[in-house]
Amino acid sequence: MQQEGAPRRLRVLVIAEAANPEWVSVPLVGWSLARALGQVADVHLVTQVRNREAILRAGLVEGRDFTAIDSEAIAKPLWAVGKVLRMGEGKGWTALQLINALSYPWFEHLIWKRFGPAIKAGEYDIVHRVTPLSPTISSPLAAKCKRAGVPFVLGPLNGGVPWPRAFDAERRREREWLSYLRGAYKMLPGRGRMLRATAAIITGSRHTQSEVPAAYQDKCVYIPENAVDPARFSRKASVPRDGVLRACFIGRMVPYKGPDMLLEAAAPLLRDGRMRLDMIGDGPMMESLRAQAVAEGIEDAVTFHGWLDHGRVQDVAAGSALFAFPSIREFGGGVVLEAMALGLVPLIVDYAGPAELVTPETGFTVPLGARAQIIAGFRAALERIAADPALLEPMGAAAQARVQARFTWARKAAQVGQVYDWVLGRRKTRPDPVAGQDQFEHSG
């Protein structure tokens, strides 16, 4: 019950086309942030009908807590086309974004048809589009909300990290033909209208913020896209005392995530019994990775777990002290945060999303370079760590503390709450949560 004299809770219409508690990646981000925002505002979630049953199973009440918009008349046939363009499950991400860009305006058209009168009547203080995360997908609602006098908040936006030039072969293997033309989205007229009308743009990565035109940089607030739910990551990794370095890899077994590079880098330590490695995940490279392990003579020191459900992932990962992840193109790096939440020390390539999450006190980074350079960098880091495993315990504790302080969904909701206060004039200065300027500053 609201106390007398306390500020009225904000009423926020949260749009998350992808929001699903039973899926991973973008749908889980949409769901997790939408739910966490309920701590700072009265939230009504608007999502696509494909998420309806999972949300009902999670205990939300349709009509009161959320609305499912049925845009399948347009979305379903375009999705079928997208599957053809992707030329393989888990491939062709840019093609999928193109399809989403074509179908998404119809979704927002239906939202306006359903909620436009309420927005114009002032029943919502803010409209916030959480997903799609891609900055290539414009939002026609932004201009409509501005005309209605209701601030429109966009983000977290993330994506578009350039493919490293040395990995063009991996780019082709991922069927990312359209990524060569991705920059064309900046010339679409809908993007300019959206940016002009938007009150605040939450950017989930430094790269994405760099793609926002200079004229709108003063609207940007940098808040990394991903966070963790402490209840889902409750285990605590421990450094084994037997002198053997235990490491894990978590992710799809695809070229750009570098599982083959990790096996090659770790091979001398694995052969000598100085290291053991758990490979968690599945994908098109699995057969070739198993063959590589046999060819390198390391099959007894590597365990391929395949796909595991979420609970089992942390059970296996908690048996390691190091998270070895040589991916060369991660937008957000949520899996890095999840490993840190367990107290694992990350070893990553110093590029894109993961590099924005890991500090020298909490993990190790290897410079981005050609394949041979990354392998050599990982091998050198593994040799150093194996020679002095005492390095890991304080770093793992620092990694876990960093996640708990900055990267839980509750913390992220508070950070977004600062943005809400800013666009409504309840805060004088633009927030900068990552720099630690976390105190609410009200103008009254």
Characterization of the model:
The protein has a seven-stranded parallel β-sheet, sandwiched between helices. It contains 16 helices and 13 strands. It is elongated. Helix 3 (72-86) packs antiparallel against helix 4 and helix 9 runs parallel beside helix 10. Mean pLDDT is 88; it is low at 85-92, 177-181 and 437-444. It has two domains: 10-227 and 408-435, Glycogen Phosphorylase B (Rossmann fold), CATH 3.40.50; 245-405, Glycogen Phosphorylase B (Rossmann fold, 3-Layer(aba) Sandwich), CATH 3.40.50.2000. Helix 5 links the parallel strand 4 (126-131) and strand 5. It has 444 residues and is an alpha/beta fold. The chain is 40% helix and 16% strand.
Annotation keywords:
444 residues, alpha/beta, Rossmann fold, seven-stranded parallel β-sheet, six-stranded parallel β-sheet, 16 helices, 40% helix, elongated, disordered C terminus
What is the strand and helix layout of this fold?
Layout: E1 10-16, H1 26-36, E2 41-48, H2 52-57, E3 66-69, H3 72-86, H4 93-120, E4 126-131, H5 141-148, E5 152-157, H6 168-173, H7 189-197, E6 200-203, H8 206-210, E7 220-222, E8 245-250, H9 259-271, E9 275-280, H10 286-296, E10 302-306, H11 310-317, E11 322-325, H12 334-341, E12 345-350, H13 352-355, E13 364-367, H14 371-387, H15 392-406, H16 409-423
Tell me briefly what this model is.
With 444 residues, this protein is α/β, with parallel strands linked by helices. The chain has helices at 26-36, 52-57, 72-86, 93-120, 141-148, 168-173, 189-197, 206-210, 259-271, 286-296, 310-317, 334-341, 352-355, 371-387, 392-406, 409-423, and strands at residues 10-16, 41-48, 66-69, 126-131, 152-157, 200-203, 220-222, 245-250, 275-280, 302-306, 322-325, 345-350, 364-367. The model is unreliable at 85-92, 177-181 and 437-444 (pLDDT under 50).
